[in-house]
Design a protein that fits this description.
38% of the residues lie in helices and 22% in strands. The chain is of the alpha/beta class. The protein has a single domain (2-135, 185-249), classed as 3-Layer(aba) Sandwich (Rossmann fold), CATH 3.40.50.
């Protein structure tokens, strides 16, 4: 079954989507974090949930909209609000279903935000799987912002930036990304609980960055040969999902 619901806490209204077979028998939860410009209804999350939920009885998948994404009502995208939303969802899972140690799955920008949260909140998830994580999210966005938009940002204006879908961003948000540089943080202590899956043909997020990140932190990396950023090829997506579910089950 699929069910939409909102979590209204701490001055926020987090728009969520639940995938499960029975809300009365939830024992394990996987929190899914979509990428930049995506939303809780993304094809990637739906495909993952359709495979993960039937895999083991009592499993549920919870997806949600980041601030300024999907149906969210916020006007300004800020890293602190992203952190707030993830914490609200994490607490909701604990309080509603009694799941103290959910897993988390994030793609691209969602992967970046999960890693940031992990480093700042002392491993709040049992296991974390990342697909094509934007290790250097700042450079990824700045690489597609032209001179005209940079001038507007410097003047204090917001601009539309995105890959497949545009999102309104400000200089404050970009400065936050630059300051929260994951490459300057150590994830060695979490190495046993994190895995990365990355397509070797990723045209948006540098595959080499994942290699360096995983090598530096002794984190396992699963390379999917020929897969692009979105994993458009269903067979390659199936490989990625199977490896992630196996990792969660261990």
């Amino acid at each position: 079954m699929e069910k939409y619901f909102d979590i209204n806490e701490q001055g926020a209204s987090v728009r969520c989507k639940l995938y499960c077979t029975d809300t009365r028998s939830i024992e394990r939860v996987i929190v899914c974090c979509h990428g930049f410009g995506g939303n809780k209804d993304s094809r990637g999350i739906q495909t993952f949930a359709q495979r993960a939920v039937p895999k083991r009885k009592g499993t549920a998948v919870v997806a949600f909209d980041w601030p300024c994404h999907g149906e969210d009502g916020r006007k300004n995208l800020l890293l602190e609000d992203c952190d707030l939303y993830l914490g609200i969802v994490r607490d909701y899972v604990r309080e509603t279903w009694g799941v103290e140690d959910p897993c988390a799955y994030g793609t691209s920008f969602g992967g970046y935000l999960l890693l940031k949260y992990l480093s700042e909140h002392q491993s709040p998830f049992r296991k974390v799987a990342l697909r094509c994580p934007a290790i250097d999210m700042y450079d990824a966005l700045m690489g597609i912002i032209d001179e005209d938009k940079r001038a507007k940002l410097d003047a204090g204006k917001t601009v539309l930036v995105g890959f497949e879908r545009d999102v309104k961003v400000s200089k404050l948000f970009l400065d936050g990304l630059r300051a929260a540089d994951l490459r300057q943080r150590s994830f060695f202590d979490y190495a046993d609980d994190v895995m990365v899956v990355h397509g070797t043909a990723d045209e948006i997020v540098d595959y080499a960055a994942s290699i360096t990140f995983c090598d530096d932190n002794v984190i396992p990396l699963v390379a999917v040969e020929g897969a692009d950023h979105i994993f458009h090829d269903p067979e390659k997506m199936a490989v990625a999902i199977a490896r992630i579910i196996d990792f969660f089950e261990r």
